[in-house]
Design a protein that fits this description.
Structural class: alpha+beta
Bound molecules: 1-deoxynojirimycin, calcium ion
Helix content: 10-25%
Low-confidence stretches: 1-25
Mean pLDDT: 95
CATH class of the largest domain: Alpha Beta
Strand content: 25-35%
Shape: globular
Radius of gyration: 25 Å
Number of strands: 38
Number of helices: 12
Oligomer: single chain
Number of domains: 3
C-alpha cells in the first residue's frame, strides 16, 4: 500500500530518477550524497549484514552502524542480500501553517534499498534521504501475511570519537529533566534528541521523525570502545516493543548535522520528513500568545479543585484574565481546573470532561471572551487515565466545539491507566495520535503536556501545535528550579524535535509578591522558590524557545502597569524568518525572528554575564529603523537583582553595531520596526 502511494508521489515530483539495476554497482558499498555534496552516506553489505556510515564536511561522523530487527518467536531480520536499489532527487518548497519560517525548502537525494532476508526471503525496504542539513532513514516491511511483533530494532549509531554531548536520561515516562553535559562515553541511556559536538567541531543530533503506530526510541550504549549506541524501543507492558498487523513502516531515524550550533535550530529536517498536510482550509489554525489561570495553582496561591475557598477557575477570576488579555495585546486565556474531578487527581475515572464546577459559568465566560475577541483555551488533564479519556473523547471535544472553544491543552500527569504502559511506548503513541486526529475532525488545536517526544507530525496535522515534554518553567514554582544554563541548552536539544510550551515570561522572579497567599503541598516541598533569571531573560525566552502558543505565564497582577509588558504585548507566535546570530550550546544564544516588517532580536546567557556585539546586517537594508529594547541594567543579576531592567527606544541603521551586556542569568529583547 504505502510503497504504491510513495511511488505515485515520486512519479509526479521526481526530477531525476536512476534505477540501481541500470548500474553496475558494487553491492558492498552504495553511496549517496546531499545536494551540496557535503554529506556522503554509504550503505554497506558485509558478511550478509547491512550497515550505514556517513561523512560530513570531510569528517567521518558515523562509522559502520548496523540495521535490522529482532521479532518475537525467535524470528529476526538480520541477514540480508541487497536485491536492488533506486536513487531519486526531490526539490520543492512548501508553506507551513505556522512555524519558524513562512517557507521551507525540501531538497534531498534519496536511496531506496530493497533487501531480502536470507532466512525467510522476506523483503525489507530501507529509505535513505540525504539533505544538506542532515540525513534520515526508515524501514518499510511490506509483508502483510501475518502479525509481527518487534522485540528489538537493531539500528545502531556508532560515532567516531568521544564527542561532547548534551543529553537527558531516558526513562520511558518523562522528558522533564535537567541536561547532562558529558562525553558520549558517559552517556549510557539517552532520550532523543541526542546532541553532540564532534572532534572537528561539527554538530550532530540524533532524533526521530513521524512516530506513528510505533514506539519511540531511546539510545543505549552498546559498545563503549566504538562509541556505539543501539536504538532501544520503549516497550509495552508485556515487554514487546512494537505490535503490527504485518506490514509496518518505522519512524525516520534522523541525524541532523551542522557546522555551527545555530544550524541545528534553523534546520527543518524533521518537518520535511513528514507527509504534507491534506489539501484543505487551515485558516482556522491560528498561533496565539496567552495568559492563564495556571501559575497561581503552581505557586500554591489557589487550587485546581473547588476546595477551601481557594478555587482558581472561578467566573470572576477568569473575567479578570480575559480583560487583561483584551487590554494588553494577548490573544488567549487558559483555564485549568474548570471541570469537576480535580479533588480525585490520580484516581481512576477522576475527571469529568464536560461538567464545570458550580462557581464557573462556562457559557458566560465563552461569551464574555468572544465579545472581547479573546480565545478560551480549554484543558483536559487526564492524570494518565487513558481509558476514561478515550471513552469521553468525542463527547469532550463536541462539548468544547459547541461552546466555541477551539484551543485545548491536554495533560497526562500521572502513571498510565492501563497500568504498565509508558508515556513513550506504542500504546501512548497511538493514543496521542488518536487525539490529534480526532481533534482535527473537530477543528481543535492542541497543546500536549507530558507527550511523547514530538516528531514533526504537525506538518501533516497542523492542529497539533505545541507540546511540553520539557522541564519547563513550572518546575521553578515547586522544585529547586532550572538553572540559567538550562534554557541555553533547550533550543539545541529538545527544541529540535518541535515546539515547546515552556511557559516563560515571569516578572516576579522571586515569586514573593503574594507570598502570604501561598501554601505548600507535598509535591511542593521547597520553602523558597524562584525563576532563576532576569526579567529581560524571561521575555527573551518567549522569542528564543519557539512555540506557536506562547505563554506569558506570570500572574496578571504582576503584569498590570508593568512597563516591560510592552515587549510582550502583540508579540507574534509564528515567524516568517529565523536566524541564529551567535550561539554556544549551554552558554548563550542570540537569535532574530521576523514577522512581516518587524524583527524580534533576543539573547539569553547562562550563569555568566556576557557582552554581545550585535550588528544588524540581517535587516538587509540601509534604511533607518526604530528599536525598542529591554535589557539588564549594570547591576542586574539573576540571584541578587533579577527584576532590574532598562527600556530604551532609539533609531538605528543596518550598518551600525551595538554593544549589549547580558547580566548573569540575563538577556535582552529588542523589537525593530
Ligand atoms: C502538568 C502540566 O505540565 C501543567 O502545565 C499543568 O498545570 C498540570 N500538569 C496540571 O494539569
Ligand atoms: Ca508537566
Amino acid at each position: 500500500m504505502k510503497i504504491a502511494k510513495k511511488t505515485m508521489i515520486l512519479a509526479v515530483l521526481v526530477i531525476t530518477i536512476s534505477a540501481g539495476s541500470l548500474y553496475l554497482f558494487s553491492k558492498n558499498d552504495i553511496k549517496i550524497s546531499s545536494p551540496s555534496g557535503e554529506i556522503i552516506l554509504n550503505v554497506v553489505e558485509k558478511d550478509n549484514k547491512l550497515f550505514f556510515n556517513a561523512t560530513f564536511n570531510n569528517e567521518k561522523i558515523i562509522d559502520n552502524s548496523s540495521l535490522g530487527f529482532v521479532f518475537s518467536n525467535n524470528d529476526s531480520l538480520i541477514h540480508f542480500k541487497i536485491l536492488e536499489f533506486e536513487k531519486n532527487s526531490y526539490d520543492a518548497t512548501w508553506k507551513p501553517a505556522w512555524g519558524q519560517f513562512s517557507e521551507i525548502r525540501n531538497n534531498y537525494n534519496e536511496l531506496i534499498i530493497k533487501a531480502e532476508d536470507l532466512i525467510n526471503n522476506r523483503i525489507l525496504n530501507i529509505y535513505f534521504r540525504v539533505y544538506d542539513d542532515g540525513f534520515a532513514f526508515r524501514y518499510e516491511f511490506p509483508d502483510n501475511s501475518k502479525p509481527i511483533i518487534i522485540m528489538e530494532e537493531l539500528t545502531e549509531f556508532c560515532f567516531t570519537y568521544d564527542n561532547k554531548s548534551w543529553w537527558i536520561e531516558a526513562d520511558y515516562g518523562s522528558l522533564e529533566k535537567l541536561y547532562n553535559v558529558t562525553n558520549i562515553s558517559n552517556a549510557l541511556n539517552v532520550a532523543t534528541p541526542f546532541t553532540m559536538k564532534t572532534a572537528e567541531g561539527n554538530y550532530i543530533s540524533i532524533l526521530e521523525a513521524e512516530i506513528d503506530n510505533y514506539s519511540s526510541m531511546t539510545l543505549r550504549e552498546s559498545d563503549k570502545k566504538r562509541y556505539c549506541f543501539n536504538v532501544s524501543l520503549v516497550p509495552w507492558a508485556d515487554g514487546s516493543a512494537v505490535k503490527t498487523e504485518g506490514a509496518f513502516t518505522s519512524p525516520w531515524r534522523c541525524v541532523q548535522v551542522s557546522k555551527n550550533a545555530g544550524g541545528l535550530i534553523t534546520s527543518s529536517l524533521v518537518l520535511n520528513l513528514n507527509e504534507p498536510a491534506k489539501d484543505a482550509d487551515y485558516s482556522w489554525i491560528k498561533p496565539i500568545t496567552y495568559v492563564g489561570i495556571w501559575w497561581e495553582m503552581h505557586l500554591g496561591i489557589s487550587e485546581w479543585a473547588m476546595i477551601d475557598n481557594r478555587h482558581g477557575a472561578t467566573t470572576e477570576n477568569t473575567k479578570k484574565y480575559i480583560d487583561f488579555a483584551a487590554n494588553n495585546g494577548i490573544q488567549g486565556v487558559l483555564i485549568e481546573g474548570w471541570n469537576t474531578g480535580w479533588e480525585k487527581w490520580g484516581a481512576e475515572g477522576a475527571y469529568d470532561f464536560t461538567t464545570p464546577y458550580p462557581d464557573f459559568d462556562i457559557k458566560a465566560i465563552v461569551e464574555y471572551a468572544k465579545e472581547r475577541n479573546i480565545e478560551i483555551i480549554g484543558h483536559h488533564e487526564t492524570g494518565g487515565d487513558i481509558i476514561s479519556f478515550e471513552k469521553n473523547l468525542e463527547k469532550a471535544f463536541q462539548f468544547y466545539k459547541d461552546l466555541g472553544i477551539n484551543y485545548v491543552k491536554t495533560g497526562y500527569a500521572g502513571g498510565i491507566i492501563p497500568r504498565g504502559e509508558h508515556h513513550h511506548g506504542q500504546y501512548m503513541v497511538n493514543h496521542y495520535n488518536k487525539v490529534m486526529r480526532t481533534a482535527m475532525k473537530y477543528q481543535i488545536m492542541l497543546n500536549v503536556h507530558e507527550p511523547v517526544i514530538p516528531s514533526g507530525l504537525s506538518r501533516t496535522y497542523p492542529n497539533l501545535m505545541t507540546f511540553e515534554g520539557v522541564r519547563g518553567g513550572e518546575w521553578n514554582a515547586w522544585s529547586e528550579g532550572n538553572p540559567p544554563s538550562h534554557t541555553c541548552i533547550l533550543p539545541f536539544t529538545r527544541g529540535l524535535a518541535g515546539p515547546m510550551d515552556y511557559t516563560p515570561g515571569i516578572f516576579n522572579i522571586k515569586q514573593d509578591n503574594f507570598e502570604h497567599k501561598r501554601i505548600k503541598r507535598d509535591w511542593q516541598p521547597y520553602t523558597t522558590t524562584e525563576s532563576r533569571s532576569t526579567i529581560s531573560n524571561q521575555i527573551a525566552l518567549m522569542v528564543i524557545l519557539y512555540s506557536p502558543w506562547q505563554m506569558a505565564a506570570d500572574l496578571i497582577e504582576n503584569y498590570e502597569n508593568h512597563p516591560a509588558f510592552r515587549l510582550i504585548s502583540g508579540m507574534p507566535a509564528t515567524w516568517d524568518e529565523t536566524i541564529v546570530i551567535e550561539a554556544e550550546i549551554g552558554r548563550y544564544i542570540v537569535m532574530a525572528r521576523r514577522s512581516g516588517e518587524k524583527w524580534y532580536v533576543a539573547g539569553i546567557t547562562d550563569e555568566l554575564e556576557r557582552d554581545i556585539k550585535l550588528n544588524f546586517d540581517f535587516l538587509n537594508s540601509s534604511k533607518h529603523f526604530t528599536f525598542l529594547l529591554c535589557k539588564d541594567t549594570e547591576d542586574s543579576h539573576y540571584k541578587n537583582n533579577p527584576e532590574s531592567y532598562l527600556i530604551k527606544q532609539q533609531q538605528i541603521s543596518s550598518t551600525q553595531h551595538m554593544q549589549i551586556r547580558m547580566a548573569a542569568g540575563g538577556g535582552f529583547i529588542m523589537i525593530i520596526e
